[in-house]
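Page 47, continued from p. 46.
Same chain as before, 348 aa.
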Amino acid sequence: MKHAALLALALLACAHAPAAKEPRAANLEVQDAVHGVRYALPAATETWQVTREGTARSPTGVETEVSSFPLAAPGTPQQCREYARARLSGKNAASADAGGANADAPREQASSDAPVVGWSFTSGAASAPVRNRWAFFTREADCLVLYVTGPKGDPFADQTFDTAARSFQVLPLPPERQRDVDLLAGMGFLERRDPASALERFEALTRREPDNAKAHFGALMAGFELGQEAYARALPHGRLALRSERDLTPEQRHLALRAVGVMELADNQVREAADTLAELVVRAPDLAEAQYNYACALARLGDAQAAIDHLRTALRLDGELAAHARQDEDLKSLRGSAAFEQLTTPAK
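Result:
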């Protein structure tokens, strides 16, 4: 009887025990090897489609992506946000100037600084509005941006952004990868006609890698683009770049010799300029500017005959230099000589 009662109680307890909860689906970790970050995505009813670059798309149309852009110097996520806003505004202004209506212009904008620095806005046609959610992070002088887009009002898109932004981790890049990032950033600034920012990025790399000839070359060219006020800062980089025979391409070496020679002349380092430009005219004998600048250095050193010879070669390559030569103070020691007058006087 006692055994039966205990068995009945046991059966009763089992019958009323709460049902075991189904295990909650785990978040999906995304590893972005290109940008050096990782973050998590919430579990979806169907499988996320994730690429190696870190782009992901859910079956419901929610998309995530990571991109990066450079600053001139280490900055804050807030600075990255302002830069991104300005860049997007510039694109929209250009579209408006072209006379086109831009449905992607941001509207219903909102910003936040916690738990992450974010910016959200609506874009797209009124019939199918898209909500854009951006979160900003930094790695030294590079901005990293997490984008999450989805239909406006979609709660899963909000959940995706919250999960991804809170779990977002910026990982250190291997030294060789960081080197490539810095070089590309500097060259990008040069291409966008921003030599001041390019100089900052290249110099930051030279401080980490003092023997990096390409970084010194980039700093030299940035200083050359900035003009004479930056020559004193850039010239040491040029000399360090020229120490390397194998790290610069022939074209880069020609450009470095040209820039260094001009800077040395401007700084009255005439003997050094003559040596630099002598190498350039050997390597690039058909470069009129090289022949001309070498003639200037020789004239300032008092070697009139050699100066005339190289000036003659320069004018043969580019006759329009004659007008400049007649006004050039570097060539004033040659003025009045029969050879100089014959070379620079326009034919009647």
